[in-house]
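Aim 2 progress. For Translation initiation factor IF-2, the working sequence is reproduced below.
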Amino acid sequence: MSKIRVYQLAKELGISSKELIEKLSEFGVEVANHMSTLEEDEASIIMEFYDIDNKKPKDKKTSKKQNRENDETKGKEAVHEREEKKQESPKKIISIPEKIIVKDLAEKIGKSVSEVMGKLIALGVFATINQEIDFDTAEVICGDLGIFVEKEEVKEEVEFGLEQEEDKPEDLRPRPPVITVMGHVDHGKTSLLDAIRKTNVTAKEAGGITQHIGASEVEVHGNKIVFLDTPGHEAFTSMRARGAKVTDIAVLVVAADDGVMPQTKEAINHAKAANVPIIVAMNKIDKPNINPDRVKQELAENGVLIEEWGGDTICVPVSAKSGEGIENLLEMILLAAEMLELKANPKRLASGTVIEAKLDKGRGPVATVLVQNGTLKIGDSIVAGSSYGRVRAMMNDKGKAIKKAGPSTPVEILGLSDVPEAGDLFHAVREDKIARQIVEKRKLKVREENLNATARVTLEDLFKHI
Ligand code: GTP
Ligand code: MG
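Predicted structure tokens for this construct:
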């Protein structure tokens, strides 16, 4: 980017737009107002001037060569100095909407209307107190008044009506718990999930168990439990980073012959940070030479105090190999889930989280989503991250085509325009149009952010040529 607006350059230089306009005029560059665009060479003149202005008196003994070297680095230093100054004095930032009425702005920033009007007039903007001004103008005059402002984010949920009223208590129904299995490498997470599926996926299903998607449902005494097969840590980090919470309970697998290891500690930290209850599955108890007490001791040292030691964490000894303790573990999961009183409203439009997604050669973008509230139906318009579309087909964890999916159901869906990212939230919306608008807006925001980042870099690059 070679051009820059007056107010942007003023902001970079830490001066008011008015001051910059005056200075530009002294250099023979006449601009209309703060929104005028400056060419690269016009901006350079001013930047050079301000550098000279800020330059400390040179040491008399400094050689010409050193002076030249100093001059070469001055641009960079000036940028850094300004950056440092900005960081040194953290200023309060006031959020204002994209368009604001003059008198509302005065009230928001705690200044008199006449002060605000005065600054507007100085800028050449003649607005009445009841007139709306745009954010860029407001930012400039606030800057002149020594106040930093930022654009108020209109919550997407509000703008597009994604935020629905709170669910009525009578609409809430119990929903199955969603479990993530976590633990150190080779402690038996996959084996444990396999054992769980073997023990519980209804035996009547012919042809054994084929797992089609990164999540599975098992049924224990008529109660469903949903397991996410996404590697535990990934699920927690990527999803938490996006503000999604998918797991109700974490099953921490610790091998009885190995004890608490680095990734066990990480898993504990993740679960605690997400405020998710932990159930310890002490695995490989079929092995000789194991020391369960030592493992319990290590768990206590890492903040996981099990019940028999006076804490409230359940620890179930299991063997993924022999199947011992698996039934017990599932019972404990159901018990813990019961205490959480997990509920959702199957009547509303669906919302949830993308668990994994990929581009399939034949089928296009394929996403595994976890429906967390509402019911997702074939034909629903949905938006997920920066992709949207209509649900064309849905498959459950056994690869069976289904027509609708209620709360706590993992499903594979077809029909999205792009491949969303794991951890993206998804929403079903009333109309295709809304889904498209949301995605367009999200993409625009990303583009703007990228552009801003480029503008900043280019400005620093400019100094290199001075
Ligand atoms: P990563 O996915 O690599 O982190 O490992 P994991 O935690 O999923 O472990 P996995 O289930 O792959 O098991 C690792 C090894 O331990 C395999 O060789 C399993 O056969 C063995 N193993 C798992 N559970 C048991 C158990 O209960 N008893 C015994 N004896 N071996 C087990
Ligand atoms: Mg594994």
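DSSP finds 14 helices and 23 strands in the chain. This observation will guide construct design in the next reporting period.
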